[in-house]
Amino acid sequence: MTVLQDPPLALYVHFPWCVRKCPYCDFNSYTLRGPIDERNYVAALCADLDAQAHVVQGRQVVSVFLGGGTPSLFSPAAIGAVLSAVGAQLAFGVALEVTLEANPGTLERGRFAEYRAAGVTRVSLGAQSFDARALEVLGRIHSPEDTRRAAEELHAAGLENFNLDLMYGLPGQTVAGAVDDIKAALALAPAHLSHYQLTLEPGTPYAASPPPLPEEGAVEAMLTDCRGRLEAGGFTQYEVSAYARAGRECRHNRNYWQFGDYLGIGAGAHGKLTRAAAGEVLRTCQAREPRRYLASAARGAGTCTIVDPEQLPFEFMLNALRLAEGFEPALFSGRTGLPWAVVAPTVRRLMDRELILETGGRYRASPLGWRFLNEALLSFLPENPKSAG
Predict the structure, then answer these.
(1) Does 387 score more than 70 pLDDT?
(2) C-alpha dihedral over 257, 263, 269, 272, to 10 degrees?
(3) Distance (Å, rounded) from C-alpha 113 to C-alpha 116?
């Protein structure tokens, strides 16, 4: 009999403000129009946590991710207050990973040491590129030198476990330019590197007025050459867009990709929670607009819906097929409460098309499957049960 199990639990905290909204960004973020009222927003986060904590009582938090927006606009004291409130409500696991997203252009000297003292153990720097012209086109407020200075301060603060976000396929970018970004990133000795292709997301200024982007062949060459450069530099690709040195994979993101649980607090924050005893997987979402969120957080006014069991195969595969290591059928059954037989025919069809590989009882996307991941994933939607045939 297949039994739904409680997976590891993470916490996501959303900080919705940025100094300036980038034209490619479709995240729930808002341009800052004045000083941040840290006290009110932290109070709202604490109230939000209090309203949701009953669903996860008795479970340990294995990681915390402070995302945005730009969380580094908030002071170390504010970040510390949030983490203290979480620790008072929920139990922290051993060797807790606490990641803070930071914009290199919003940091004051010495702040990383203060963030570390507040409880931050890992930082994700939004570098995006080391080409000053590219940063300007992307609407970024920082310079390449800002990123280099931030990396130096991270090392000095003892936060060597940091990530650099880089993008490729940028307007006017060449293959050599993309590789130069990787070289510049490696020179800063990060522990982790996220490498994303620039995409034109609906509703963004870039979608309304697209910039000239490199051709598909050039983008493929960028990905291949950059991967080779990262592997030569001691990094392993453990997820579609993530590379890490040994033992430095992001535990928080791995939990997402293994269809783990996460409590989401903050304006527009999403959550995924399992109620094993009831045999249910829940999706939660908080009010997106900051003013609405501030007014409603204390009332626990976010939405909570039960995921239709027919959607669970797609939701699981949407995450698990991103991992290079793949997954075992037991993980699918434990995280969805469904027998492997539900997806086995679709998996076999995708194996016949060489989009999924099986090795030692583990299933993973092939290199071809990663390249056409969206097409493979559509095969698991209930309205497309035979699209892989």
Answers:
(1) no
(2) 50
(3) 5
